[in-house]
Amino acid sequence: xxxxxxxxxxxxxxxxxxxxxxxxxxxxxxxxxxxxxxxxxxxxxxxxxxxxxxxxxxxxxxxxxxxxxxxxxxxxxxxxxxxxxxxxxxxxxxxxxxxxxxxxxxxxxxxxxxxxxxxxxxxxxxxxxxxxxxxxxxxxxxxxxxxxxxxxxxxxxxxxxxxxxxxxxxxxxxxxxxxxxxxxxxxxxxxxxxxxxxxxxxxxxxxxxxxxxxxxx
Length: 217
Known about the structure:
Elements: E1 4-7, E2 9-10, H1 16-24, E3 27-34, E4 37-45, H2 46-54, E5 60-64, E6 67-78, E7 85-92, E8 99-108, E9 119-122, E10 126-131, E11 139-143, E12 152-154, E13 165-166, E14 173-178, H3 185-197, H4 209-216
């Protein structure tokens, strides 16, 4: 399996003012941890990190000078308003040990499914899995071509490559096909007639002052 390459520099400045200056310079503070090694503080170009986040490759290789670290993205911190990168955490992996990570679920065969009007509901969009770093897939494909209205597909029904363990309850629903909610023509016609028959109430004009005076006489 290939890995996305990122170049980084050791982070030498700390503190809120220093961090603000890094971000103004379109740099992102980062940290690598894991494998019993001391945490490594880095600085990376924000644009490069954004591309790495979007990459389909689950593994990243971070080059710090001549040192190379194979990592997974663990946490991405963004500005809640602007959405700009604030900080990113990487977890270093050992290539011969299983790791816990998440992968997306991709539906296939939707165009081949019976045209029954059913609504396909993807309940689980990401799967928590365990496997060797070299076995991490880009996604888990779920074939729904044979599913019809009323069908559900569970975790235990998924076909995954050898060596991958899914860390979910076996009976958790992944995909379901629901009956569409239809309004009958009679109901639509009745609702339309009811709406047309409702006329706005007209305010009654107050009695003329003269009429009131005549009644009192």
